[in-house]
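Private note to self, pasted from the team thread so I don't lose it. Backbone tokens:
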């Protein structure tokens, strides 16, 4: 019997750990602690990613699942003369999706400062139509720090500097009707599901037919993912990432989404067929789809020369790279 409360708990805890690309140490430590509690073997790569290993009967033909722990975010690009901060985006998202959002500035001496991301013309009472018509480009946004700072020097005296990480409030909510709304369900929904699978296998002492590797990658949002840390005996690679429900798409928030092709080309046809048959045999609802503006850890692995069958599956995430559901 599956316990969805365990998955919900994993997900809310993961979503409350800031982890923009390049700033994933805290979430790796969380995963390490969970694996240590279950006595599950794991390895850490030089890039900071982690692979958990569940030994199977067949150790020559291993299956690797990946999910990425890194999220969208920003970095401090400039400290302005008025003490406010210009930012540089981490990952691809529309700036208007974080307009007016609370954020944290993470300094290199481990301080955290609260702030809000606003446009440079945030008040309709002051700027009137200019506020409405301002292009929603990154250059037209700034962080207002929740401290008494009015100059560049006063902000620098807080310890804030160029390259500091900015994380945005996830606004996580699980509704009474069972929907999950939050930023960064891409891809923490998949990470939570994989942690639950590991726990389920551990509690029930399940030994798989093939050795299974669960790889938590930390540079997926910027394109180079887990390509250099995939166990060498991997013959099948499955990226567990979001499906994309929306206009013109077949994916939904209620089914396992199986991607047949993305912006890099088709996934392995026969391997996808195997996954479809597994869904049919086990009464798992699924949807096949094509994502024209998408890439995954599997994409990065293949470009790096991985000699394996490859597939992409995941939960349906509405409004991806925005306030997701």
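Design output:
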């Amino acid at each position: 019997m599956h316990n969805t409360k365990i998955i919900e708990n994993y997900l809310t805890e993961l979503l409350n750990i800031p982890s923009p690309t390049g700033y994933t140490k805290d979430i790796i430590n969380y995963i390490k602690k969970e694996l240590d509690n279950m006595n599950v073997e794991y390895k850490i790569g030089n890039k900071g990613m982690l692979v958990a290993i569940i030994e199977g009967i067949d150790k020559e033909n291993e299956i690797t699942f990946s999910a990425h722990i890194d999220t969208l975010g920003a970095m401090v690009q400039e400290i302005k003369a008025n003490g406010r901060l210009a930012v540089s985006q981490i990952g691809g998202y529309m700036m208007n999706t974080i307009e007016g959002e609370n954020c944290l500035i993470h300094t290199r001496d481990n301080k955290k400062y609260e702030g809000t991301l606003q446009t440079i013309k945030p008040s309709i009472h002051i700027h009137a139509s200019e506020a409405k018509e301002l292009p929603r480009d990154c250059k037209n946004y700034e962080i207002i720090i929740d401290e008494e700072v009015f100059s560049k020097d006063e902000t620098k005296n807080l310890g804030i500097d160029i390259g500091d990480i900015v994380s945005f409030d996830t606004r996580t909510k699980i509704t009474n009707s069972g929907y999950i709304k939050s930023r960064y369900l891409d891809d923490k929904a998949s990470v939570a599901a994989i942690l639950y699978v590991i726990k389920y296998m551990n509690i029930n002492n399940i030994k798989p037919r093939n050795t299974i590797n669960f790889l938590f990658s930390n540079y997926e949002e910027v394109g180079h993912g887990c390509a250099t840390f995939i166990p060498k005996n991997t013959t099948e690679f499955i990226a567990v990432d979001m499906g994309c429900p929306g206009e013109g798409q077949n994916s939904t928030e209620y089914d396992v989404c199986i991607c047949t092709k993305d912006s890099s080309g088709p996934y392995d046809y026969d391997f996808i067929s195997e996954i479809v048959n597994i869904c049919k045999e086990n009464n798992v609802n699924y949807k096949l789809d094509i994502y024209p503006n998408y890439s995954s850890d599997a994409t990065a692995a293949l470009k790096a020369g991985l000699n394996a069958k490859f597939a992409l599956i995941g939960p349906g995430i509405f409004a991806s790279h925005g306030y997701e559901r």
